[in-house]
């Protein structure tokens, strides 16, 4: 079991947190800046878009903007798989493997984007998009244009997002987060500028989802021209096949996992738009975005911690891994409990200051969001460790079960009761599909992970 190098100041902060802790703090600092910019974009764009579009079109806008999360799993998990493989190769100090993995992942993702483009070209003119957005038929053309912009942005994001995952795997997350911050600031500026002149739904959608791609392209350009990541040798066909197989195998598992998560969470706004109309979707979106500051804040830790977990597992430092998992779980739950309680209690004041109007929301819904924030914080702390350890089969079983229970329950609740109980469906489904199995199988899962060779 490897140990971290001793500090020259044994009683200082550096000795207490260690080299990995310093990396987490440094990357987390830039993640804080990026997430702060994302939060500013998330909250500040809402009143401008709401004022420019009105309640009905605003509900369609937030639904469209939420669809950019598709880029997170339409890469078929190859981004996360690449990050794990690069973190392992980087920990072994194998520059050749790092360069080869990057080369193969780029090639694979370009192929994925090409396939998605063909599907989008066929779907855009055929599907009645205005119906799925809860818009009248008179808005069919405008809805189709807005959807086309979103789908094009998602397709472009699939290969462009690889730069962020690679830099995290290399321990250079600060570079990725700098570009993310620039993209979010640019998107906010574009939305505010267009909203001030009452631009159309399509233009405001494009400003929100396409502008960040400019920063992603610049991030990729800087990575392409990094001499340390250039393949300077002719890799054997056998080696290329092995690396390609590893990327696809790891990526497919992550894709199925991401797909189940998307089914559980990304369907909320489209379901509300279909069954209840875009106005209620807009109300739900405001509540959802307010409580999203909790996981957004915690992601400052999860993003850099994932590849560092992987590097520690490769180095055989199981003691550090388990100690960090224990501490992160406790701190995440405590933060989420306090933060969500503050948001629930002060909801009226927060919303009034945010969108400059009152919002009638049942206390039951607010309590549901608050409880879910706590469960989500604990679950993400554990999932970050399991993802780094490539513990995918267990997660696939529990996540698919959760997705089916969650989606089915939400469809029934939205159609028959309303939007108030949606977060409670998520809580109950998560307890049944994730919490109970983890308590039952924890003594088998964790020892097997720590005994595995990476």
From TrEMBL:
Subcellular location: Cell membrane
Membrane topology designation: Multi-pass membrane protein
GO cellular component: plasma membrane
Transmembrane annotation, as ranges: 29-52, 58-87, 108-133, 145-164, 176-195, 201-218, 252-274, 286-309, 329-347, 359-384, 396-415, 421-441
Ribosomal protein in keyword set: no
Keywords: Cell membrane, Membrane, Transmembrane, Transmembrane helix
PANTHER family found in the cross-reference section: PSMA PROTEIN, PST FAMILY PREDICTED COLANIC ACID TRANSPORTER
Protein name, entry field: Membrane protein involved in the export of O-antigen and teichoic acid
């Amino acid at each position: 079991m490897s140990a971290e190098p001793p500090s020259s100041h044994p009683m200082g902060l550096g000795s207490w947190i260690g080299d990995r802790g310093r990396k987490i703090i440094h990357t987390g600092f830039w993640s804080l800046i990026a997430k702060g910019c994302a939060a500013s974009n998330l909250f500040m764009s809402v009143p401008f878009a709401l004022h420019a579009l009105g309640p009905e079109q605003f509900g369609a806008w937030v639904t469209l903007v939420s669809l950019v999360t598709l880029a997170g799993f339409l890469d078929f998990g190859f981004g996360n798989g690449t990050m794990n493989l690069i973190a392992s190769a980087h920990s072994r100090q194998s520059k050749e493997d790092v360069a080869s993995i990057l080369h193969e992942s780029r090639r694979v993702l370009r192929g994925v984007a090409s396939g998605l483009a063909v599907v989008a070209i066929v779907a855009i003119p055929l599907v009645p998009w205005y119906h799925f957005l809860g818009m009248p038929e008179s808005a069919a053309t405008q809805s189709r244009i807005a959807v086309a912009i979103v789908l094009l942005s998602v397709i472009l994001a699939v290969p462009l997002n690889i730069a962020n995952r690679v830099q995290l795997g290399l321990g250079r997350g600060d570079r990725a987060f700098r570009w993310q911050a620039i993209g979010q600031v640019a998107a906010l500026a574009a939305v505010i500028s267009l909203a001030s002149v009452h631009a159309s739904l399509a233009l405001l959608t494009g400003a929100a989802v396409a502008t960040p791609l400019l920063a992603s392209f610049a991030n990729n350009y800087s990575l392409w021209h990094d001499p340390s990541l250039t393949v300077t040798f002719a890799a054997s066909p056998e080696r290329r096949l092995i690396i390609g197989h590893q990327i696809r195998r790891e990526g497919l598992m992550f894709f199925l996992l991401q797909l189940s998560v998307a089914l559980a969470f990304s369907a909320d706004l489209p379901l509300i738009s279909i069954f209840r109309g875009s106005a209620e979707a807009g109300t739900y979106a405001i509540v959802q975005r307010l409580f999203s500051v909790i996981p957004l804040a915690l992601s400052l830790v999860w993003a850099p911690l994932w590849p560092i977990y992987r590097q520690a597992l490769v180095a055989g430092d199981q003691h550090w891994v388990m100690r960090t998992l224990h501490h992160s779980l406790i701190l995440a739950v405590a933060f989420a409990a306090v933060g969500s309680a503050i948001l629930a209690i002060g909801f009226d004041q927060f919303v009034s200051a945010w969108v400059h109007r009152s919002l009638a929301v049942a206390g039951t819904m607010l309590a549901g969001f608050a409880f879910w924030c706590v469960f989500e914080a604990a679950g993400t702390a554990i999932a970050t460790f399991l993802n780094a350890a490539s513990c995918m089969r267990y997660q696939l079983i529990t996540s698919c079960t959760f997705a089916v229970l969650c989606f089915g329950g939400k469809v029934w609740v939205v159609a028959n009761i309303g939007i108030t109980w949606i977060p409670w469906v998520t809580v109950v489904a998560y307890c049944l599909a994730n919490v109970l199995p983890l308590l039952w199988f924890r003594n088998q899962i964790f020892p097997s992970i720590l005994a595995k060779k990476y």
